[in-house]
Design brief:
single chain; 593 residues; alpha+beta; 5-stranded antiparallel sheet; 4-stranded antiparallel sheet; 15 strands; rod-shaped
Length: 593
């Protein structure tokens, strides 16, 4: 019985061994047995000394807690000094006293929060300058040094050179200004491990430096107004107003920093106020940019309006608003960075959001680019009468998205600027002259002498009229059609606008009708239209008279065909009175009276 049990146990173990070996082999064949080892995570330093920023902040906190033994762990000390607790504490206290007397650290937001430290400070890699101590007797640069090699986690400590300079400083018998002035109870009583008197002085100095800066700004403005002749003008006043508040804020900050450092206010208080000081400086700079944007916008709009470029005013306003929005965004990002918020992820999100927004607002961007093109090229302006494709109208407004035209039917047509910039624009407002191009068809009975008379007299009229441009007009007998003799006229009218040119055109046509009637012929009408009752009968008497006139021209060599005699042209120039006799003339004083 026992031997049977042993056999069963033997076969069971054998089967289990084969199963394990089979699974192992299969796993090796499939590659499932391969595992990747995760890299060992670097443990955080309990004192936060992995970065220069963490070292300075941890050191200040240790001083604030009056834990000088912990503060000494941020210093590079020799083995002998490290074993002596009293010496470590003494060095840390000396360091604090020197900082209170005239030292300062760079604001926390400016210090590097990378393990490699700053790489753009022209210092050896692994060394960062984080502050200085400057008194009447000593001047010490405060350096941090990475004590680990490349294979170990970073460990930033105040360098041995800095510690030796602090250790060698003589501070015996020296007291800060506040220690000599403040009552004893304001020094002994503390708030946040800082003498309450220091907090009170900070508040007082903030008020004093603000009032002092206002006084200095008042004196500075008074001197500028005395020296600068244009200070009382609108432009000068705008410039002074733009700079007043930002300069006052900067001056207040500078005076506050200088006074608090010289008075010996605790480095703990000053370091906590450093973020506020830098924030005020950034806000002052943003206010200056904002006010300068307003000034440039106001000055540019004024110049555009004075030069008649009203269409550019809306562009200036849009660019001004865009600039202000950019100032706000940059200011928020800068302030968030100063107070310690990591804005990298936010900027990445803004970049992705900007791409999505750009894809979703292609038409809007197209219209904006089109408006910029319209402003740069200025093919049309507000008040211009123009034609865009098949739409005619007067431009009423040019916006950043669209342009509106008022048609002759008094309707408003809105055209997106993207489409407008790609369209053919015909601007009638900027014409330096207006074409006069009537085509006359004379009846087939017109004699050759009548035609010669018409060609000469019509051209004489154009030479003589004062509103016709002083260039040779074209009056040509251009062809014979199925129902008329065709005469084409081309000349240019000098006029300041379309309405005036139409007045001149009207006068020319009326005078030409007089010449046609005098010639004895008349205009032809299409054969398919019945004008039998109105048809002017052919005048043989007038035709004979015109024939005699042309005959006399030929005899005296005065027929002005195919060209006019220059002497005759000079005689004709300005010989016509325009407006005609009996017309109302607003420039005639007798007519007005």
């Amino acid at each position: 019985m026992i031997s049977g049990t042993k056999r069963i146990l033997f076969f069971f173990l054998l089967s289990l061994t084969l199963l394990v070996n089979t699974n192992t082999a299969e796993a090796q064949l499939l590659g499932a047995a391969k595992t990747t080892e995760e890299p060992a995570k670097v443990p955080d330093d309990s004192l936060g000394r992995r970065t220069p920023q963490g070292t300075v902040n941890g050191f200040i906190k240790a001083l604030g807690d009056q834990n000088y033994l912990r503060a000494s762990q941020y210093l590079v000390l020799s083995k002998r000094s490290y074993r002596k607790t009293a010496e470590r504490i003494e060095i840390a206290k000396t360091f604090q006293k020197l900082l209170d007397q005239g030292g300062n650290f760079s604001p926390s937001s400016i210090l590097s929060n990378k393990e490699l430290g700053r790489l753009d400070d022209n210092l050896t890699t692994g060394i960062d300058l984080v502050g200085n101590i400057s008194t009447d007797k000593i001047n010490i640069q405060l350096y941090l040094e990475n004590q680990s090699d490349d294979s170990e986690p970073a460990l930033w400590l105040f360098s041995a050179e800095t510690v030796e300079a602090i250790r060698g400083a003589d501070i015996s018998g020296e007291k800060t200004f506040l220690d000599r002035v403040l009552p004893k109870f304001l020094i002994e009583r503390k708030l946040g491990n800082v003498p309450i008197g220091h907090w009170a002085v900070v508040v007082v100095m903030a008020v004093v430096t603000y009032l002092l800066s206002r006084l200095l700004i008042f004196v500075l403005i008074f001197l500028i107004q005395k020296i600068w002749k244009k200070a009382d003008t609108e432009k000068g006043t705008a410039i002074i107003d733009a700079f007043t508040l930002p300069v006052q804020m900067y001056l207040t900050v500078m005076l506050f920093v200088a006074f608090t450092q010289r008075m010996g206010i605790s480095i703990i208080v000053r370091q906590r106020f450093s973020i506020i000081i830098i924030t005020i400086g950034i806000v002052a700079f943003l206010i200056l940019l904002w006010r300068m944007t307003d000034f440039v916008s106001m000055y540019t709009r004024s110049r555009m309006s004075n030069s008649g470029r009203a269409s550019a005013v809306s562009a200036v306003l849009f660019l001004s608003r865009t600039m202000k929005a950019a100032i706000v965004v940059i200011g928020i990002i800068a302030i968030l960075g100063i107070i310690g918020v990591d804005v990298t992820a936010g900027l990445a999100a803004l970049g992705i959001g900007g791409i999505a927004l750009a894809l979703g607002a292609q038409k809007t961007i197209e219209n904006f680019v089109g408006s910029v093109s319209l402003i740069a090229d200025q093919p049309l302006r507000v008040g211009d009468y123009c034609r865009v494709d098949d739409i005619k109208g007067t431009v009423e407004a040019i916006g950043m998205r669209s342009t509106t035209l008022r048609t002759a039917a008094r309707t408003i047509v809105t055209i997106p600027n993207g489409q407008l910039s790609a369209s053919k624009i015909e601007n009638f407002a900027h014409r330096d002259r207006f074409i006069f191009n009537p085509i006359f068809g004379f009846r087939m009975e017109t004699t050759p002498d009548q035609m010669r008379y018409l060609l000469v007299e019509l051209r004489s009229l154009l030479y003589a009229h004062p509103a016709v441009l002083n260039t040779p007009p074209i009056v040509r007998f251009t062809g014979i059609t199925a129902d008329a003799l065709k005469v084409e006229i081309t000349a240019y009218i000098e006029a300041i606008n379309l309405e005036t040119s139409q007045e001149v055109q009207e006068d020319l046509l009326l005078r030409m009708l007089d010449i046609i009637e005098k010639s004895g012929t008349s205009l032809a009408y299409p054969s398919q239209t019945l004008y039998m009752a109105r048809d002017t009968p052919f005048s043989k008497d007038k035709a004979d008279e015109i024939a005699e006139t042309v005959k006399k021209w030929k005899k005296d060599n005065e027929l002005q065909l195919p060209k006019f005699d220059p002497k005759r042209v000079e005689e004709l120039k300005g010989s016509i009175k325009y407006p005609d006799e009996g017309s109302f003339n607003p420039e005639d004083e007798e007519t007005l009276l």
